[in-house]
Design a protein that fits this description.
Pfam families: Glyco_hydro_cc (PF11790). With 277 residues, the protein is an alpha/beta fold. The chain is built from 8 helices and 11 strands. β7, α4 and β8 form a beta-alpha-beta unit.
């Protein structure tokens, strides 16, 4: 896999890692000698000591929660999430609102949680946009729905309500980034789907979950490598996160070969390829 660009990859760090193996995140941060833009060592001035640099190809960390993973220790920006209604009505809202997070995700596959697009749009218009973007300047990632007809229909209804309200109020109410999930084993279909979502809504994408579901390790590796390079080159894709960095299988859907961490908390060869090591 080509040397990754550090500007787009988001580490999807499951909450079980914080609970069971927080030190595993240290594998993400490698230390190297100071270098110039050509990645060549820079000679220190006489008598001057140069500290090692911490290098990572990842831009941010996301854990599907409102709380900050303490093991991150400020080494990368954290992206909290309003995953359900609970994050709007409890102390978790205060954590998100008062945090220094520059970007917030809103709702994770809400169509599968029984949340209506009308309710989600009302919360978005009445609370999320005014409190987080207008008052605190946070960037907002819209609801990330599944890449199936149900998810697409839910998102279309949500965006219609938001756009209509935007016209009525004559101010920006749309998301800063369109949240997108995608799972399959077909890299060309993935490219077409992501392109279609951008063309349909005209918003830069935050591909907050993506992975191959093929059971063939070679196909998974090829899918991950080719699509990473493709997304790196698309100006309209802001961030993307490969699922999933956890020591257990989340379910039977995502391919075991797509795991980025093994059962002992070690990063898998696929994860290390994403890191460029």
């Amino acid at each position: 896999m080509a040397t990754p660009k550090p500007s787009k990859r988001c580490l999807l760090w499951d909450y079980t890692n914080t609970r069971d193996r927080p030190d595993a995140i240290d594998q993400l941060f490698t230390t190297t000698s100071p270098s110039d833009s050509a990645n060549k060592p820079i000679a220190a001035e006489e008598g001057e000591a140069r500290a090692p640099l911490t290098v990572t190809p990842f831009k941010s960390v996301h854990n599907w929660n409102a709380w900050y993973p303490p093991e991150l220790k400020g080494r990368l920006p954290f992206r909290p999430m309003i995953r359900t209604r609970a994050q709007l009505d409890t102390e978790e809202w205060d954590w998100i609102r008062d945090s220094d997070a520059e970007m917030v995700h809103y709702l994770n596959e809400p169509e599968r949680q029984g949340i209506s697009s009308a309710d989600a749009a009302a919360w978005w218009l009445d609370k999320v946009v005014p409190e987080l973007r207008e008052k605190r300047g946070k960037k907002l990632v819209g609801p990330a729905c599944a890449s199936d007809p149900g998810g697409e229909a839910w998102l279309a209804e949500f965006m219609t309500i938001v756009y209509e309200n935007e016209k009525k109020k004559k101010k920006k109410m749309r998301p800063d980034f369109l949240g997108v999930h995608y799972y399959s084993g077909d890299v060309e279909h993935a490219k077409r789907y992501l392109t279609s979502m951008y063309e349909r809504y005209g918003l830069p994408l935050n591909v907050s979950e993506i992975a191959s579901i093929s059971r063939d390790p070679g196909e998974v590796e090829a899918f991950t490598e080719e699509l990473s390079g493709w997304m790196d080159e698309k100006e309209w894709i802001d961030e993307y996160g490969w699922f999933g960095c956890m020591a257990h299988y989340a379910d039977d859907f995502v391919s075991p070969a797509a795991q980025l961490m093994d059962g002992e908390g070690r990063f898998t060869p696929l994860m290390r390829r994403l890191m460029g090591v």
